[in-house]
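Fold this sequence, please.
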Amino acid sequence: MALWDIAGKQAGLPLWRLLGGSPRKSVPVYASKLRLSEPRYAAEACARAVQRGFKGIKLHEINIDTVAAARSATGDDIALMLDVNCPWSYSEALTMGKALLPSQLTWLEEPIWPPEDVDGLARLRHSREIPLAAGENAANAWGFKALADAVDILQPSITKIGVTEFVKVGGVAELSGRDFTPHSPYFGPGYLATLQMAAVFPRMAWMEYFSVELEMPIFGDSALLNADGTVDIPQGPGLGADPNPEVIRRYRVA
């Protein structure tokens, strides 16, 4: 990411233009919540996210009642996603998937352990009604080539595979007809780089927005949440924005 940032600055272009992307101004983001466990806490957090303008929310719960409480708080018009972080066997995931149907999930993320159990994911995809998402643990485009036959939504993490490999994964998504929604619960360069990828790949329907408020925004007025639940793609050279020197000074550890 650092080298691509340098290349963009040398050329005087934002990364999306350097890579031949589209002049997309903004991207819808969903609020990615920490695991709250208790139904009432999840419901309160989701209600606040809706008030802030988010049109999508991702939970990290493994409790059916907590997910149901969150759905009751959001209403039916908000997209609700669930990342369970690989807790179940295939049979457990099958049972839980059926129990989650009333919550009308937009996708179920990484339901099976281990995450590289592509065969288990493929069997699950063909036996339930909730779209499956995975990919944050895949290391390169070859890993996503296998995942494309097993899940509905590919989720590369740019901080783990880098810009060059991310672009290859975008090609895999295009060729396989899979949706493309990156894993990006980041505040720093990974956040900016993923925003740039949203312009490189206009079909990216959502971007993950880590729903924890910083005391001071790292990039000043750039890449902040808009009232309509979108984030503008920074148009500066390279990754689009640079850290605010005052924030670095204030939080420097001696």
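The chain has one domain: 24-213+241-251. The domain at 24-213+241-251 is CATH 3.20.20.120 (TIM Barrel).
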